[in-house]
């Protein structure tokens, strides 16, 4: 019985530990952008939430908020959150979105004629940055 348990443990360690180690050593497939890179705040809100710190109840007039957006692809959300943690005491706020969600949003809104030319251009630039960062082909 002890031999079987030892054998199973050794087998588990030989198979699982290298896979776990490999996953944690792989570079994170994520890009950090600014909230503003997703267009006017009334539009970006639909994807990212409010443009004030998530631990605050409302926006303070005249206050600048440094909110970062982590776009990730083929990653576990918990791994991304661990790499980019929200820390209220340091005024460090992140929003997390998948590459697919970001691209769907950018494709849809960068062609929206109701937006200003500057807003559409900003969305196109963000889309191209993501395509380049993740090694994808432009559509």
Question: What's a quick, concise take on this entry?
Answer:
The protein is of the alpha+beta class and 139 residues long. The protein has five helices and three strands.
Q: Can you give a write-up of this model?
A:
The protein is an alpha+beta fold and 139 residues long. The chain has one domain. It is built from 5 helices and 3 strands. Helix 4 (99-109) packs antiparallel against helix 5 (117-133). The radius of gyration is 20 Å and the shape is flat. The termini are far apart.
**DSSP strand tally:** 3
Net shape: flat
Number of helices: 5
N-to-C series of helices and strands? HEHEHEHH
Q: Gap between N and C termini, in Å? A: 59 Å
Whole-number radius of gyration?
A: 20 Å
Helical percentage? 40-55%
Mean pLDDT: 85
**Spans with pLDDT under 50 lasting ≥5 residues?**
none
Number of domains: 1
Supply the helix-strand structural class. alpha+beta
Strand order of the largest sheet: 1-2-3
Major sheet characteristics: 3 strands, mixed
Strand content: 5-15%
How is the topology of this model organized?
Layout: H1 2-25, E1 30-34, H2 41-48, E2 67-72, H3 77-83, E3 93-98, H4 99-109, H5 117-133
Parallel strand pairs: 2-3
Antiparallel strand pairs: 1-2
Helix pairs in contact: 4-5
